[in-house]
Recover the amino acids of this structure.
């Protein structure tokens, strides 16, 4: 591959030199002639020559060669005709004029092997430097930058002469600089200017190119070193930003998983070990919704999550209300018993799902708008993570709205703060208990929809989140929704920053141990509620 | 605590184990009452679980500490014993390395990690099975009780503790065999593990250790210390104003209980032939809690009864109707907490006048 | 740190304040108790009487002010068991006895002695301890119920048992929070007798609502209101104080 590139480069260089010397311009060889050759090597070099000839027909000809619609006619006194076959008949490749009465039997197709094909690819890159579309020119220059081939220097120079588009120009200059540096040519001043260009460009390729240089001249070496360290700093900055993004994304997942618990445990004080299963039910609801959509309305698939979110809220919410009415209400004031009973419930729910859906992972699809990623500078932002962050923010905002702004929220807070007083004021406390628990469970179900996008949907889905969720709520301060938000995001970010240092598992262990120690220092979390009520 | 039921329990454990031993060793397999060796090990395993349950009842029933991480102490005791058994394999391993266990050769260890030294000595390994759980319990308990973490908060952080250990032991570079744990044991104290004699010996050892633990626990809970402990369980603040330091009382039973759990684990591993990180899973610890709840919390004997009943049920169900087992276990949790807050023993004794030491719902 | 404690006082509170979430439950409270004195503290609900006891016994740490026991022991630096060991006993507003234990065991656990696990683990009941328990049982009139589970006692009996436990602690200073709340008239009178008897050998601070009871005790009275001392003196003096009348009857 490399030797081939060198070969092409040498050929390119040769042809460019040929073009560049005006004295010989008149009797310049026919760039199309080599295409008629029997030898693949000659065809390949002809392609390379054609590419840099500046001939207006070069692009169409090379394209035809790639499409295998290029034919050679019988050689007469003149050079053999080179014809392009189109739907409307044959066209002369040299002149782009239609050619009448061609006997197809006389024509020989120009044969293509791998070497020729590679020559075509390479030629198209260079060709595009002269394409009409500035975006194509930029792309071509970009490719030359990556290959930073010394041979491309004159070609770039030629392209630059004509270039008026500033974006394309910038990239061509960068490519030129890269080629110059890689070739080890140019004066110190030129090299330093080139280094400055690369430094300004500031991406990973620039840095690795700079790092690969062995400069002998001190000023140039200094400039390169300075540029490298500056680029490294920028790279570090991006990687910090990337970690923050991953951390926010993990934090949002934690927040989603914990926000329902922040209601049931934080506000009501109920230890619901089956909380994870409410999340799991939400994920399975998503699966069922998608199955139904696939079967009856495949066109709606991209909207499947919008059906799944309210449904998951309903399913988990109703299950939550049932749990509260049938189990938890008999255990108020007995937290440890509640813990055990709801653990039992979680086993039952897991097994129920396992029996009906099987124990293997279920495939939940990702809508097209959620797949893919964007790169901003050195930051890769995957859409699914981005949307989960947004979703978590919406869920928590809605939850706070409900708690603060609605009469249901007011009643909930009244009941949890002073049950007897609330009852005396005519609030139906049992009903409020059930609704509060249903709300927390429903939120868990919505979290399940989001988690189905990034985690395996299996009966054990919830198990993986229960300890983390409790840690988040306790760390943030029980009964404090803001505390839960801060705690989830903090834990997410800390985790992601520890990962590169300690590895994923060890990082998690470190966070867990730190949390255990923290809770022992401040048993009521970062933002504790105060007052006699919390002292049992 | 009822003296009579404790003594009855001791008699049943010792008598039962002795009878099984006799029926296994002294009768021919054709004999109708012959006890097969796998049954000996099965019962031996139940007795180890009973030791764990007893340990848990000591802290939960008498000090109000609902530990959701007690299986961790059990597992650590098990790992200590497993390390000894591993080193006994010697050149009989697949790779035939005299020093390094198979998994280390496989993972390219060049030499034995420092913490594996000494485990070729059975006494050292046995004492580590007690000391390491005790140390972990001491540090953890000191921090937790000093800062007055209690109730569900304590439960949740004990669960986090065992979860952290679970993650840690899954790692290959921890040097404990990672995912697969320690297994393929050959012999113990120079006896072949597969021999009937060894199996019976282990059953008897488990029975004797269980009885010893029961006696120690009974002494502790009936002493003046135990009465303070019960007072701490129900009205911690009041004991403080009387001049007691609840944290030292809790710390003492917590460490004692961790040691018992370690003993249980050390006896468990040679009988089941394997120890892996799964033993640290939070589910295991919670399952142990339900043994205690089923038998009757705060009765000691109830914990033993519960461990044996539930595990016998588990053996039966997982064999006969594997689908049903998790349903059964789940409903057991729910029904016991809702309907049988004092457990089976409480049900049996419900006519008698309540005595100190029995938990209140 | 304005002035040192009044010489010879048993308990000295000076400028003590504590607030919860901005609410000042105790506000610049000062109080001096002589050795051997019995003091009644009265005040409307929420005046801070229980909080004052919380501060003395180490349950709540004051934001500012001095709390000095005896000559120079700074109580704000000690925790509850350490303060109890110094000889300050406390009876709670809501009777708290060890319900699963017998009356006898309740008293046994309260008896002065080594409280460390390494002692209680091996401790055997001595004949001195038994004599002492018998003595207290006689004082609190629960001799016949010694084998009864404390949880099965009546409300009044629990109050007495708790006072008995205080006696068993042999404290220098007893803090008694609303001892006659929920008692019958005759029980109330008996309790007043009991407190006077206890006061022969120890200092006592009694918090009470019941004016009749306070009158029956016949001791110096401190009236607490909104966290500070409103008035102090004999019961006749404070009940004639217009500020006190205002607080009790004005609203
Ligand atoms: N730990 C606490 N947290 C919040 N408020 C408290 C706390 N302790 C006492 N208070 C408040 O301080 C005030 C005084 O209470 P308290 O001392 O119990 O009054 P009293 O015993 O005189 O009726 C009350 O308003 C009470 O709500
Ligand atoms: Mg009060």
């Amino acid at each position: 591959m490399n030797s081939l590139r060198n070969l092409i480069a040498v050929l390119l260089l040769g042809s460019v030199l040929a073009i560049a010397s005006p004295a010989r311009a008149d009797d310049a060889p026919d760039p199309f002639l080599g295409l008629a050759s029997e030898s693949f090597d000659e065809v390949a070099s002809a392609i390379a020559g054609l590419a840099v000839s500046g001939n207006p027909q070069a692009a169409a000809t090379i394209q035809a060669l790639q499409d295998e619609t290029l034919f050679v006619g019988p050689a007469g006194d003149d050079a053999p005709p080179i014809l392009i076959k189109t739907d409307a008949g044959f066209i002369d490749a040299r002149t782009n004029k239609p050619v009448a009465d061609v006997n197809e039997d006389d024509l020989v197709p120009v044969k293509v092997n791998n070497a020729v094909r590679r020559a075509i690819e390479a030629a198209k890159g260079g060709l595009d430097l002269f394409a009409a579309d500035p975006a194509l020119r930029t792309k071509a220059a970009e490719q030359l930058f990556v290959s930073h081939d010394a041979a491309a220097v004159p070609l770039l120079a030629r392209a630059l002469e004509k270039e008026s588009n500033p974006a394309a120009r910038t990239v061509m200059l960068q490519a030129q600089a890269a080629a110059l540096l890689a070739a080890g040519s140019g004066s110190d001043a030129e090299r330093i200017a080139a280094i400055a260009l690369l430094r300004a460009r500031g991406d990973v390729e620039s840095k690795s190119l700079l790092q690969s240089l062995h400069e002998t001249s001190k000023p140039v070496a200094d400039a390169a070193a300075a540029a490298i360290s500056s680029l490294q700093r920028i790279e570090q900055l991006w990687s910090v930003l990337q970690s923050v993004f991953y951390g926010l994304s993990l934090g949002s997942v934690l927040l989603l998983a914990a926000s329902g618990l922040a209601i049931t445990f934080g506000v009501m004080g109920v230890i619901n070990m089956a909380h994870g299963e409410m999340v799991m039910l939400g994920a399975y609801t998503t699966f069922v919704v998608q199955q139904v959509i696939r079967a009856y309305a495949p066109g709606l698939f991209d909207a499947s999550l919008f059906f799944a979110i309210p449904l998951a809220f309903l399913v988990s919410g109703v299950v939550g209300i049932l749990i509260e009415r049938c189990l938890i209400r008999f255990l108020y004031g007995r937290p440890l018993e509640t813990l055990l009973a709801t653990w039992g419930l979680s086993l039952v729910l897991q097994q129920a799902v396992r029996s009906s859906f099987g124990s293997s992972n279920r495939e939940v699809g990702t809508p097209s708008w959620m797949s893919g990623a964007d790169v901003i500078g050195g930051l890769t932002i995957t859409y699914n993570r981005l949307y989960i962050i947004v979703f978590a923010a919406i869920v928590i905002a809605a939850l706070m709205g409900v708690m603060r702004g609605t009469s249901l929220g007011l009643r909930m807070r009244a009941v949890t703060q002073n049950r007897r007083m609330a009852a005396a004021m005519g609030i139906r406390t049992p009903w409020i208990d059930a609704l509060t628990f249903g709300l927390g469970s429903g939120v868990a179900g919505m979290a399940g929809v989001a988690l189905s996008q990034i985690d395996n949907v299996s009966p054990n889905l919830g198990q993986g989140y229960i300890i983390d969720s409790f840690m988040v709520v306790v760390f943030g301060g029980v009964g404090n929704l803001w505390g839960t938000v801060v705690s989830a995001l903090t834990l997410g970010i800390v985790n992601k920053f520890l990962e590169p240092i300690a590895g994923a598992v060890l990082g998690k262990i470190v966070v867990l141990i730190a949390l255990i120690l923290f809770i022992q220092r401040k048993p009521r979390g970062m933002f504790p509620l105060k007052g006699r009520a919390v002292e049992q | 605590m009822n003296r009579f039921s404790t003594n009855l329990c001791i008699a049943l454990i010792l008598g039962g184990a002795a009878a099984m031993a006799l029926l296994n060793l002294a009768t021919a397999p054709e004999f109708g009452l012959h006890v097969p060796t796998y049954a000996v090990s099965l019962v031996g395993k139940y007795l180890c679980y009973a030791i764990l349950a007893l340990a848990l009842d000591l802290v939960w029933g008498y000090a109000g500490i609902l530990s959701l991480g007690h299986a961790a102490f059990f597992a650590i005791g098990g790992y200590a014993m497993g390390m000894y058994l591993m080193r006994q394999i010697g050149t009989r391993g697949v790779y035939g390395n005299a020093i390094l266990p198979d998994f280390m050769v496989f993972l390219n260890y060049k030499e034995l990690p420092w913490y594996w030294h000494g485990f070729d000595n059975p006494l050292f390994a046995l004492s580590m099975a007690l000391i390491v759980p005790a140390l972990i319990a001491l540090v953890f308990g000191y921090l937790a009780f000093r800062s007055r973490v209690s109730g569900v908060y304590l439960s949740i952080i004990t669960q986090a503790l065992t979860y952290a250990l679970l993650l840690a032991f899954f790692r290959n570079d921890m040097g404990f065999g990672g995912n697969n744990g320690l297994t393929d044991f050959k012999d113990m104290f120079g006896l072949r593990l597969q021999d009937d004699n060894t199996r019976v010996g282990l059953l008897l050892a488990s029975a004797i250790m269980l009885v010893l633990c029961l006696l120690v626990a009974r002494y502790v809970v009936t002493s003046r210390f135990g009465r303070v402990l019960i007072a701490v369980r129900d009205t911690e603040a009041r004991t403080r104003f009387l001049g007691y330091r609840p944290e030292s009382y809790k710390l003492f039973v917590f460490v004692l209980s961790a040691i018992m759990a370690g003993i249980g684990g050390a006896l468990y591993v040679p009988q089941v032939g394997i120890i892996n990180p799964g033993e640290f899973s939070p589910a295991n610890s919670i399952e142990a809690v339900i043994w205690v709840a089923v038998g009757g919390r705060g009765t000691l004997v109830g914990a033993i009864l519960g461990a044996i009943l539930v595990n016998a049920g588990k053996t039966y169900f997982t064999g006969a109707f594997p689908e049903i087992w998790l349903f059964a276990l789940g409903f057991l949790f729910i029904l016991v907490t809702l309907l049988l807050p004092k457990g089976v023993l409480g049900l049996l004794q419900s006519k008698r006048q309540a005595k100190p030491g029995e938990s209140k719902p | 740190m304005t002035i040192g404690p009044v010489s010879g006082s048993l308990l000295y509170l000076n400028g003590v304040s504590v607030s919860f979430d901005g609410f000042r439950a105790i506000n610049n409270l000062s109080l001096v108790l002589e050795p051997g004195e019995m003091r009644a503290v009265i005040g409307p609900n929420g005046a801070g009487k229980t909080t004052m006891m919380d501060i003395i016994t180490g349950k709540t740490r004051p934001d500012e002010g001095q709390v000095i026991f005896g000559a120079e022991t700074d109580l704000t630096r000690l925790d509850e068991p350490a303060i109890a060991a110094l000889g300050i006993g406390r009876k709670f507003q809501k009777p708290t006895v060890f319900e699963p234990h017998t009356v006898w065991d309740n008293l046994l656990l309260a008896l002065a002695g080594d409280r460390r696990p390494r002692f209680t683990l091996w401790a055997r009941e001595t004949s001195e301890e038994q004599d002492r328990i018998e003595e207290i049982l006689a004082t609190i009139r629960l001799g016949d119920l010694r084998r009864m589970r404390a949880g099965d006692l009546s409300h009044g009996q629990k109050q007495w048992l708790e006072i008995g436990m205080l006696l068993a602690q042999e404290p220098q200073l007893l803090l008694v929070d609303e001892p006659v709340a929920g008692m019958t008239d005759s029980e109330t009178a008996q309790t007043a007798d009991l407190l006077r008897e206890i006061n022969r050998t120890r200092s006592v601070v009694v918090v009470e609502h019941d004016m009749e009871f306070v009158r029956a005790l016949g001791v110096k009275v401190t009236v607490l209101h909104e966290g500070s001392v409103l008035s102090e003196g004999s019961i006749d003096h404070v009940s004639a104080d217009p500020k006190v009348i205002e607080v009790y009857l004005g609203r």
